[in-house]
Design brief:
By secondary structure, the chain is α/β, with parallel strands linked by helices. It has helices at 35-38, 47-57, 70-83, 96-111, 128-132, 157-164, 188-200, 269-284, 287-302, 327-335, 360-374, and strands at 14-18, 21-24, 29-32, 88-93, 115-119, 149-152, 169-175, 204-208, 232-235, 246-251, 310-314, 317-321, 339-340, 349-352. Helix 3 (70-83) packs parallel to helix 8 (269-284). It starts with 13 loop residues before the first strand and ends with a helix.
C-alpha cells in the first residue's frame, strides 16, 4: 500500500530534535524557524515536557470521557490563570479543525441560525464546516459548499454591518492574525465594531487562535491586542508542542447539555499532561514576554536587509515580504543553509514561526543565512 499523495515533500528526514535544532537521518542539523506550522511553542524535546509525558505514560495514557479525569480540570484552571479568560468553559478535542467545527456547531445551536461570516484569505481547517469558512476554492468539495458562508474583507465596517443586520448570521469567525493567508489582521477599530455588532445582533464571535494563541503574538491570545471579548475561542497547534490536542473556550452564556459535543480521544490523560507542560514552561520561562522582546530584535535585524520590503505580524508570528516569490528561497534555506521556514497563500511572503524560547543569537544565525542567499 502507498501513502495517499497529498503532501509535496522536501527531501529531509528528521529523526531527532532538541530546542530549535532538528537532526536528519544523515546527522545534519537544521535550525527550525517554522515549528511545523507554529506547533512547536516551547522547543523540541523540552526536558520538562518530556518528563511530564513520560511520568503520565507510566500511570495511565488514555480512558474515555465517561470517567473523571482531574487533569482536565487542572488544565482548565491553568489556562484561565495564564490567559485571563474568565467566564469561559473548556471543551477539549484533538485539532484546530475539530475545535473550529465544534465552535461553529455551538454557535448554530445557540441562536438557531446557520449563515457564517468569514474573511478573505482566512484558513480554519480542512474538515466540513471548517473548510467551508476557509477562503480556498481548491480544497472545498461540493459537499462543503452547501454551507452558507459570506466572505468579507477586513476593515470594511459598512459591509460587515449590512451582512450582520440581515438577521440570519449565526457566527463570525476570524483569525487574530491570518496564518496561511499571509499575516494580515483587522485593525482595532474594526475588531471593536465587530464585537459590538455581534453582541447587538445575537451573533457568536469566534476567535480562531489556533495559530496565534499561546503567546505567539506577545499576548496570550492575539485578540487581546484589541480589547474585545469573543464568545468562543479555539486553540490547538502550540497548545501541545507537537502532541495532538485542541480546545474550545466557550462563554458561560452558551449552555452545555449531555451529548451536545463529544470526542473519543479529546482531553485524554497524555494530551492533558502535554498541555499542562506547555503552560508550565510558558510561565516558568516567561515566554510570552520573550516573544515580544524577540519581535523587536527581529525587526531591527530585518531592517539591515534591503531586499525585505516589509515585516508583517506580531511577536513571533512573522512574515518577511519580498518583491519576488519565495519558493526557491525556501529551498535554498533548507538545502544550503539548513533552516526551515514557511510559505503562505501570498507567494511573496516568507513565514517565520520559531519556538517562543528562541534567542537573539539564533535570530542572528537566521539573518546571516538569509543574507548569504540573497547576496
Amino acid at each position: 500500500m502507498n501513502l495517499f499523495d497529498v503532501y509535496p515533500l522536501y527531501n529531509v528526514t528528521p529523526v531527532s530534535a532538541k530546542g530549535i535544532k532538528v537532526i536528519d537521518d544523515k546527522g545534519q542539523e537544521y535550525l527550525d524557524f517554522y515549528g511545523g506550522h507554529a506547533v512547536i511553542s516551547i522547543g523540541h524535546s523540552h526536558p520538562h515536557y518530556v518528563r511530564r509525558i513520560k511520568e503520565q505514560l507510566d500511570q495511565i495514557s488514555f480512558y474515555s470521557n465517561a470517567i473523571h479525569n482531574p487533569l482536565q480540570g487542572e488544565l482548565a484552571e491553568k489556562l484561565v490563570q495564564q490567559s485571563n479568560c474568565n467566564d469561559y468553559n473548556l471543551f477539549l478535542c484533538n485539532s484546530g479543525a475539530e475545535a473550529n467545527e465544534n465552535a461553529l456547531k455551538l454557535a448554530s445551536f445557540h441562536n438557531n441560525k446557520s449563515r457564517v461570516i468569514a474573511f478573505k484569505n482566512g484558513f480554519h481547517g480542512r474538515t466540513s464546516a471548517a473548510v467551508a469558512v476557509t477562503d480556498n476554492e481548491t480544497i472545498n468539495a461540493p459537499i462543503n459548499k452547501q454551507q452558507k458562508v459570506t466572505f468579507l474583507e477586513f476593515n470594511d465596517i459598512k459591509s460587515l454591518t449590512s451582512e450582520i443586520e440581515k438577521g440570519d448570521v449565526c457566527a463570525v469567525i476570524l483569525e487574530a492574525i491570518q496564518g496561511v493567508g499571509g499575516l494580515d489582521e483587522p485593525n482595532t477599530e474594526y475588531y471593536q465594531a465587530l464585537d459590538v455588532l455581534c453582541k447587538d445582533n445575537n451573533v457568536i464571535l469566534i476567535a480562531d487562535e489556533v495559530q496565534s494563541g499561546y503567546g505567539r503574538t506577545g499576548k496570550f491570545f492575539g485578540f487581546q491586542h484589541h480589547n474585545i471579548k469573543p464568545d468562543i475561542i479555539t486553540i490547538a497547534k502550540g497548545m501541545g508542542n507537537g502532541f495532538p490536542v485542541g480546545g474550545v473556550l466557550i462563554q458561560e452564556k452558551i449552555k452545555a447539555s449531555y451529548g451536545l459535543l463529544g470526542t473519543t480521544f479529546g482531553g485524554n490523560h497524555l494530551a492533558c499532561a502535554a498541555s499542562l507542560a506547555v503552560l508550565e514552561v510558558l510561565e516558568q520561562e516567561d515566554l510570552v514576554r520573550n516573544a515580544t522582546k524577540m519581535h523587536s530584535y527581529f525587526i531591527k535585524k530585518a531592517a539591515t536587509i534591503p531586499q525585505i520590503k516589509k515585516v508583517k505580524g506580531r511577536g513571533l508570528m512573522l512574515g518577511l515580504q519580498f518583491d519576488f516569490e519565495v519558493g526557491e528561497l525556501r529551498k535554498k534555506l533548507i538545502y544550503n543553509q539548513y533552516i526551515f521556514t514557511g510559505g503562505a497563500k501570498d507567494k511573496t511572503l516568507l513565514r517565520i514561526l520559531p519556538a517562543l524560547n528562541i534567542t537573539t543569537a539564533q535570530i542572528d544565525l537566521f539573518f546571516d543565512a538569509l543574507n548569504a542567499e540573497l547576496s
